[in-house]
Design brief:
The protein has 3 helices and 20 strands. The chain is mainly beta. The chain has an 18-stranded antiparallel beta barrel. A two-stranded antiparallel sheet has the order 16-17. Strand 18 and strand 19 form a beta hairpin. The longest helix has 32 residues. The radius of gyration is 27 Å and the shape is globular.
């Protein structure tokens, strides 16, 4: 081999021969590394996957109504993830490094002015899981999962990964997991602090750099504890959830000239409790029902007493081999807008915790997402359709009728019509390959003046026909795939 290389080099001399030796050494060690990696993959189940997700969005009233004179927005956002996993004897580890940004938010050269709020690089997941049962145990799974992780259950209405958002959702938590003979039982907890402290455990749940919040509540929990129990049955699934999240107490302090009111955090928490169940059942071979019922009590992030409820049911009927249709309804309680609200009055506003609102309450994200919509709750009447044209091509169409769950005030002692608007969501999904997916969507709404009112979106001279469209490319490579 060396003679052959020397002949090819000809008159290049000793210098080029040294370079060839270096290249050969690099190739030799690279070959060893790949061989070891391949062997480790077989024995220890090493995984390495990634994701590049590009999404171009056209917004002309997404999230909230625009004013008539406002121009539409157009931008491209990008998610890049590198996922590394390793399974060994009685343990697993997983890490997901993520970068999320909008095209052009950074300078094309070295950028020394990027603010923390625009810095999209973060660790989306980083957890380790220890198997508490050995290989001869009759229990299917008994483990302890610790670290940054997604927490998702059932249909993700109250606990979900929120994958539509480019940054997604994750929690720093510890979860004890049990699974056996169709039973699932998870017990989890989290405890947040802003930094390493020498005294006290006061937590500011509203960081200055990133607008923390879940479904518009505007404050990150200080801690949570939950228990989830699920059972797979011959006719479907049923589960029970108890979730308690705690918010750091504060007092409002007014000082200065002109007077400025600020929150001063102290010791102690206000605790909110959410309890309920979920079911998913096949009534017949082609007719499915899913539903949930939850009650929320305790105190909210501002210390007000809560008594709120969520009730939901969705039906799906298969027509032929390719078409699926079905109506449904969601009820999320709210507070009567005609009644005076004081610091001590009870709140009836249900907050769907840390779920995936984009999946349920319209693709335009008017409800329980980043933009508030008052405290009157929501009635969502919907009809969904899915058509599997081919194995790799699917069409979706959803129609929503949105109304306030409680009385809306007109601000002058009277009432407003409770109907807020009708939204139509159209989507097509095409799988080019197993690793490449293309998705496009278009949504439009016919909103009412009640939607624009001060009690809901509070937009003057609104455009009551908002639109939203997107085109998304999703590439999810498996770096260790054989082909």
């Amino acid at each position: 081999m060396q003679k052959f290389k020397t002949t090819l080099l000809g008159t290049q001399g000793l210098k080029m021969r040294k370079i060839s030796k270096v290249n050969l050494s690099k190739s030799f060690f690279l070959g060893i590394a790949l061989t070891v990696l391949s062997q480790n993959e077989a024995k220890a189940q090493f995984t390495a996957t990634g994701q590049i997700r590009e999404r171009t969005e056209f917004r002309a009233g997404q999230g909230t109504l625009q004013k008539e004179a406002d121009k539409a927005a157009l931008f491209n956002s990008q998610r890049a993830r590198l996922n590394i996993g390793f399974t060994g004897y009685r343990f697993k580890v997983f890490m997901a490094l993520q970068d999320v940004r909008v095209w052009g938010q950074d300078a094309s050269s070295i950028n020394r002015t990027t603010t923390e709020a625009n810095n999209g690089i973060m660790l989306h997941e980083a957890w380790g899981e220890i198997m508490l049962n050995d290989t001869i145990s009759t229990i299917q799974n008994l483990s302890l999962k610790v670290g940054r992780q997604e927490i998702s259950y059932d249909d993700q209405k109250v606990l979900g990964g929120l994958d539509w958002l480019q940054q997604g959702r994750r929690h720093d938590a510890i979860v004890f997991k049990f699974a056996n003979k169709g039973w699932i039982a998870d017990v989890g907890a989290a405890f947040n602090q802003n930094k390493e402290l020498n005294a006290g455990t006061v937590y500011n749940g509203v960081p200055t750099a990133y607008g923390a919040g879940t479904n518009g509540i505007g404050t990150m929990y200080k801690s949570f504890q939950y228990a989830y129990i699920g059972k797979k049955l011959s006719f479907g699934d049923i589960s029970f959830l108890f979730f308690k999240d705690d918010f750091n107490r504060y007092t409002n302090v007014t000082a200065g000239t002109p007077a400025v009111t600020t929150k001063v955090y102290g010791e102690g928490v206000w605790s909110r409790n959410t309890t309920g169940f979920y079911f998913n059942t096949n009534v017949t071979r082609k007719f499915n029902l899913t539903g949930s019922l939850y009650h929320q009590g305790g105190k909210d992030k501002d210390g007000r007493s809560i008594s709120a409820n969520l009730a939901s049911v969705t039906s799906t009927l298969q027509i032929g081999r390719k078409l699926f249709v079905g109506p449904g309804i969601d009820y999320l309680s709210g507070t009567d807008g005609t009644k005076a609200v004081t610091a001590t009055s009870e709140s009836n506003l249900f907050d769907p915790l840390y779920g995936t609102p984009h999946k349920f309450w319209g693709s335009m994200d008017y409800f329980y997402a980043a933009n508030g919509f008052g405290k009157q709750g929501l009635l969502n009447y919907f009809f969904k359709m899915k058509y599997n044209a081919k194995d790799n091509l699917t069409f979706f169409a959803d129609i929503h009728g949105f109304a306030a769950a409680n009385t809306l005030s007109n601000g002058a002692g009277g009432e407003l019509d409770s109907y807020l608007g009708t939204e139509v969501d159209l989507m097509v999904r095409y799988n080019l390959t197993k690793m490449i997916n293309i998705e496009a969507g278009y949504s439009f709404m016919k909103a009412t003046n009640s939607m624009a009112s001060a009690a809901v979106k509070n937009v003057t001279t609104p455009d009551l026909s908002p639109q939203f469209a997107y085109l998304m490319l999703n590439i999810k490579p498996n770096f260790l795939a054989k082909k």
